[in-house]
Amino acid sequence: MSDHPVKISIQQEQFDIQAETEFLVKKSPNAGALVSFSGICRADDTLSALELEHYPGMAESQIQKIVDEALAKWPIQGALVIHRVGKIAVGETIVLVAVTSAHRHAAFDGANFIMDFLKSRAPFWKKEYLAEGGEGSWVDAKESDEDALSRWDQNADRTNS
Amino acid sequence: MTKLLYFSWVRERIGLASEERDIPAEITSVEQFLNWLSQQGDQYENALTDAASLRVALDQTHVTADAPLNGAREIAIFPPMTGG
Q1: What is the ipTM of this complex?
Q2: Environment class of residue A34 by beta-carbon count within 10 Å: exposed (0-12), middle (13-18) or buried (19+)?
Q3: pTM: predicted TM-score of the whole model, two decimal places
Q4: Strands of B2-6's sheet in order across
Q5: Domain tally for chain A?
Q6: A149 reaches B (C-beta below 8 A)
Q7: Which of A8, A9, A36 is nearest to A22 (CA)?
Q8: A39: in domain
Q9: Which chain A residues are Cβ-neighbours of B10 within 8 angstroms?
Q10: Per the CB < 8 Å rule, is B84 touching A57?
Q11: Tens digit of pLDDT for each residue in A5-64?
Q12: Domain, as residue range, for A25
């Protein structure tokens, strides 16, 4: 799989979505499709910021494993995962997943799959900070995120055009 | 010595991000390990009381409670993940 351009980055800094996705496309010379998903720190009446904690080492290796599974499942050309850690203000991007492929279905499915597994298999934890000041609490995992994983079992390999 | 790592509210309740411990030889599974660790003080008991809401990784690989410790050098304990 070494001929697939893959970039995985866990970083505090904000990043340029356009520059990152353009770079991925440039590295994927046969790409006819690019699908990207950005997760954003959602505005909420009570929330001022999120703080993202991660398990260094395992976070990178889990994301690599998820990307490898997507590469084995679909004819994907390249993949990019950037996940921020530390303090993230409302409106800022937390995560970017982008996938290139020759045709659109593999890119859509691959990005969707990577995002679903990232949510509940990559070791990151969110803490909420409140607008009224002070620390909030740790965000609970959602059952719907766990359910999202099971649909990929039934959805066996969809080859696509 | 085994390196223990704690994240999120497990870290906050125990009051440590990591520590080194000698795990007794008779502790052979993840379940036994959690049970043993919860007896190491009030803060451990408080952090580990709800085993169903804890996740464990051995040498950075997710495992279930019945998994053998298999001489893992690094054991991490954390709540369900909330990335993305």
Answers
A1: 0.95
A2: buried
A3: 0.92
A4: B18-21, B2-6, B74-78, B55-58, B61-63
A5: 1
A6: no
A7: A36
A8: yes
A9: none
A10: no
A11: 999 999 999 999 999 999 999 999 899 999 999 999 998 888 889 999 999 999 999 999
A12: 6-129
